[in-house]
């Protein structure tokens, strides 16, 4: 049996075993490419507010959230992305059984009034996130499984490159065949192989920490966010953000991350102002200014992602390359189409493998 035949069997069996899971993950990913736009369409009262040229202060925003949700902890605050967008405060609540429950509070940027509150994973966009990142299974099982499926997708792409290496130019033209579904599967597969590898690799990297936790057989340490009392130690978050601009003038601030708020800030005593650096769209919001908790804002670190090593840059690029939001609609539309193609390949591959055989030679 030659190497092509062996790799074809690996390719087809991987598709058979993972096809149903992959179909669910890819279709949820197709939705997530335009998750912000779709969430704004479905929830305009939250996401699309009257335009304002003079937003309220960050301090007023946090006071409003603290007054109504003082029993929760604060994770991070997202600034409005445009004149119609609200502030979004991401809060954490620790339930009686120790589970960390996430909340999102929407605050009108023009008035400072709370206009909505949602429990994470209780609305469509976050349902899709949970399906895409963990198949709605418990985090300890779901996220590692998705990481493994990312590896499977990458291997499927690599084996497909070898199996169909002689059909690249053949995919440029269409020939009539009784096996129309099989031919369409192979044609589209040839042109989406590199895209499949890209999504498989970046998806695995994004969930890699959960895979390590699973292999070490230890549950993840919950990041509860910070008690609201920490704001009493920082008289003004507005001054802190202003100081971040003085320390890093090019920083396009997007978030304030409070202590113990997640991967962007695991420290119990630091506050970070995160954002983008000009000309670094692929790196996402990876640049930041770090402050020590004190009555007077004190910068203890400045990180410009543009100056990082290539290894770090590649890690920063995984999220933007996975979801395709680095150049706005210009990059989202190809990702949306590519996702639909991969969904078709997952579904058609399952059908081709499971339907009754009629004597056709495999791998033809």
Would you give an account of this structure?
- The chain has 364 residues and is α+β, with helices and mostly antiparallel strands.
- Helices cover 48% and strands 15% of the residues.
- The protein is built from 11 helices and 8 strands.
- The protein has helices spanning 3-33, 35-42, 44-47, 58-68, 124-134, 139-163, 180-206, 208-215, 237-247, 310-323, 329-354; strands at 73-78, 87-94, 100-107, 114-119, 252-257, 270-276, 287-292, 298-303.
- It has an 8-stranded antiparallel beta sheet with strand order 4-3-2-1-5-6-7-8.
- Helix 1 runs antiparallel to helix 5.
- The longest helix is centred in the first third of the chain and has 31 residues, at 3-33.
- The protein is elongated, with a radius of gyration of 23 Å.
- It starts with a helix and ends in a 10-residue tail after the last helix.
- Mean pLDDT is 86; it is low at 359-364.
The biggest beta sheet is recorded as:
8 strands, antiparallel
Rg calculated over all Cα atoms:
23 Å
Point out poorly predicted stretches: 359-364
Query: H/E element string?
Result: HHHHEEEEHHHHHEEEEHH
In round numbers, the mean pLDDT is 86
Question: How many distinct helices?
Answer: 11
What is the percent of helical residues? 40-55%
User: Strands of the biggest beta sheet: in what spatial order?
Assistant: 4-3-2-1-5-6-7-8
Span between termini? 15 Å
Q: What's the overall geometry?
A: elongated
Helix/strand/pairing class, anyone? alpha+beta
**Quaternary structure:** single chain
How many β-strand stretches? 8
What percent strand? 5-15%
């Amino acid at each position: 049996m030659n190497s092509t035949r062996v790799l074809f069997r690996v390719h087809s069996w991987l598709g058979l075993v993972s096809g149903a899971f992959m179909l669910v993950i890819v279709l949820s990913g197709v939705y997530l490419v335009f998750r912000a736009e779709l969430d704004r369409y479905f929830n305009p009262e939250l996401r699309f507010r009257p335009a304002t040229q003079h937003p309220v202060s960050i301090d007023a925003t946090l006071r409003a959230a603290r007054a109504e949700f003082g029993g929760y902890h604060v994770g991070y605050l997202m600034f409005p992305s445009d004149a119609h967008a609200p502030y979004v405060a991401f809060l954490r609540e620790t339930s009686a059984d120790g589970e960390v429950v996430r909340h999102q509070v929407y605050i009108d940027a023009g008035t400072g009034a709370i206009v909505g509150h949602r429990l994470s994973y209780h609305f469509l966009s976050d349902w899709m996130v949970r399906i895409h990142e963990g198949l709605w299974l418990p985090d300890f099982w779901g996220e590692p499984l998705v990481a493994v499926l990312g590896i499977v997708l990458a291997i499927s792409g690599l084996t497909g490159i070898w199996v169909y290496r002689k059909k690249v130019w053949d995919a440029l033209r269409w020939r009539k065949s009784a096996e129309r579904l099989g031919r369409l599967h192979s044609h589209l597969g040839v042109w989406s192989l590199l895209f499949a590898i890209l999504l498989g690799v970046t998806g695995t990297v994004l969930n890699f920490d959960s895979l390590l936790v699973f292999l070490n057989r230890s549950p993840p340490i919950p990041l509860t966010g910070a008690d609201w009392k920490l704001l009493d130690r920082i008289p003004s978050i507005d001054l802190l953000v202003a100081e971040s601009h003085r320390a890093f003038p090019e920083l396009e601030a997007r978030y304030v991350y409070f202590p113990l708020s997640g991967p962007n800030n695991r420290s119990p005593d630091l506050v970070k102002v995160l954002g983008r650096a000009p000309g670094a769209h692929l790196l996402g919001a990876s640049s930041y200014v770090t402050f020590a908790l004190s009555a007077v804002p004190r910068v203890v670190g400045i990180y410009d992602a543009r100056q990082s090593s290539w290894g770090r840059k590649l890690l920063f690029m995984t999220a933007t390359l996975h979801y395709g939001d680095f150049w706005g609609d210009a990059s989202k539309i190809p990702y949306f189409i590519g996702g639909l193609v991969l969904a078709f390949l997952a579904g058609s591959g399952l059908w081709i493998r499971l339907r009754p055989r009629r004597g056709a030679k495999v791998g033809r």
